[in-house]
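Worked problem 6 (solution included).
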Amino acid sequence: MRRCGALLAGVLVLAPCASSAADAKATAAEVLRAAGVGGGLCVQLGCGDGTLTAELAADGRFIVHALDPDAKAVAAAQRLLHSRGLYGVGWAERYASARLPYAENLVNLIVVTGSGSQVPDEEIRRVLAPRGVACFRRSGTWERVEKPRPAEMGEWPMPRHGPDGNAASGDRLVGPPRRVRWINGPWHESSHMVTAGGRFYHGGLIVRDAFNGLRLWERPISPAPLRLGYTSSGPAGSVVPVLAGDRVFAFTDKQVVALDPAAGRTLQAYPEAGRPVEFLCDRGILVAMARTGLRAVDAASGKLLWRSEGKEIDALISGGDAVFFLEGDVKRGETRSLNCLDRATGRARWRKTDFPWLPRVRRLSHSNGVLICEISTFKDDKRGNAIEALSAADGAFLWERVYEPGVTHYTQARAIQTDGLVWVLLKGKWQGLDPRDGTPKRTCAAGGGHCYPPVGTPRFLFSGEMNFTDLATGKVDANRITKGNCSREMGTMLANGLVYTAPKHCSCWPMLRGYSAMAPAGGAAERLPAVPPPPAVEKGPAFSAIRTPQSTTRNPGDWPSYRSDIWRSASTPSAVPTDLDVLWTARLGGWPKGPLTEDWKFNLHSRGPITPPVIAEGLVVVARP
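Solution. The predicted structure is:
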């Protein structure tokens, strides 16, 4: 079968494949090294005897799913995986269809050998995640191909999307959720999340694959950059990480550092950045904000470019070729100023102190030369909220919009600049304003608000309970499978063609609780038949030994299935002693190795690698990897 670069970009010839079990380890190492994929979901098409499957799964970085139409090969692979204690991290399954059993954009690495070459190119391309890699065994060599990331797919690398504070993603693939892509923990409420480079960052600091949710690595950050509940408060001295280029910028152990996004190791420290409370990175310049001033350093070299001293600095953003921020403690009677500095040199461009509303400004955002000052009460009282629009070039006043935001709790004004307009969320409707003079230009329906601000894309405006307003039609689509998390920055993140939410404590209605990623409706390959086919029944080697297919429990005191019986009664008629004592203990081994095990440990629906026991005919039966 011809493997075409038009389908999967970038071809590289690798070392010859393994010829025996003895060099399977070397082959796996060569494949993983050349693939350049650090972990996640690996699919092997054509498992052979399972030796390569086992080596791909051995260090726990990948969950490996091997598919092969040959029942004997699958059985051999299963035996080998069991014998090495890897079953569960890697597993083999008989599968003969040309359509792979995965959603689109899901798999990080596909290794194709032998019978696996019958799967069409387009099907491999469908299931690979963007920048995922397929390695094909052809004529004794390995060939590497990579799936490009679609240009229409956006990222969300900073708390309000980017350094400009405009909470509008450029993602044109995200849409109303129809499918749950993944759910994971930790399950405590924490609203911080960002994504770039196909990775999802949250907590303090856990990194997952953005498309399938599998854990890639964890790096403790101290203080932990958690943001909790309505107030978005966190541990004293903590700073939310931001992403830029090939670096993760974080503040830990009293210094600003750049981390490798692939593994979490420290690449560089930035002593010149000081001890900030917030920072951003814009086109190679890292701007660190302390309450007493700003420091700008070159993100590549760490060299200090400029510094600006001040008092009670807040609301830092960067847009165009300038940085903007507020200064002055209003509570102490100090004058509040709005400032603009040249981003490259730190030279002052303008400073404003005479706007009567300036002491009430909480946040800034910028887009296309318009600077928006957001006045928010952060209370349930909707009065007193507004946006004020200025010229970013000179700070001249343009227009204002005083309004009651369509937010239920912790009310805040939020301007979203997308589709050529400045959008604000009112009660039950969106209003699009002309960025030059604030004149209303469009009105669209909107869903109900909640305890977090709205966000947008070029195609949709999002608010409330999974309410997507289509900017092309003006219609609202709501799939209330969950809601956004309480946050000042964003309750929902729109990126990678997916909708992300964080854990929440809300009891408004039954909903998804953990970190969740949801996909829009899929294409033809993802559509399930209206009438599902009957389940496939495979007869194992013990089937012929069963005397009758109508099984009976000889001893009513047995516990032959999970929760005891077909009624799931979780009960037994047997008498049990009132005083319990340990009769025997069997140690069945520990946890599998690797970062994926950590998710297993705090999964609320799993109690460990050993299944609940079933008891019948004098035997206790459990399963484990």
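Discussion: Confidence is low (pLDDT under 50) at residues 1-7, 9-17.
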